[in-house]
Design a protein that fits this description.
Elements (H helix, E strand, L loop, with lengths): L23 E4 L3 E2 L5 E5 L6 E2 L7 E7 L16 E2 L11 E6 L4 E4 L4
Parallel strand pairs: 1-3, 2-4, 3-5, 6-8
Antiparallel strand pairs: 5-7, 7-8
């Protein structure tokens, strides 16, 4: 039985060394595709879907560099949709967990 391994799985591990590409910055959009575990988001467009960068369970960390209300919104469909909406705070890291069984991202509760 062949084992499938995602080509970029190492870019979503913790910790990382200098061989990984490191945190990236991307503009917010209704659908985004992160290329590393840690991503800075700019802009004011709410994200409602994240294209899963690897096939199995994984965690993503986002930091919004521009404050926007309701930055993670529900309404996406298919793999990578967000289970619940979340209002972000500028420069506060938010962790999301991908469940391949439900194909949804779950935002970590922040108190």
């Amino acid at each position: 039985m062949a084992v499938s391994i995602d080509a970029k799985w190492e870019d979503f591990l913790s910790p990382q060394d200098n061989q990984q590409i490191g945190p990236q910055t991307m503009a917010s959009a209704a659908t985004i595709t992160p290329v590393t575990k840690f991503t800075r988001l700019t802009g004011t467009t709410p994200v409602s879907k994240i294209n899963p960068p690897v096939t199995g369970y994984h965690e993503l960390v986002f930091v919004w560099t521009t404050g926007t209300s309701g930055a993670f919104a529900t309404g996406g469909s298919g793999a990578g949709a967000l289970a619940t909406a979340y209002t972000t705070v500028t420069d506060r890291p938010i962790m999301l967990y991908y469940d391949p069984r439900t194909t949804l991202y779950y935002v970590q509760s922040v108190v």
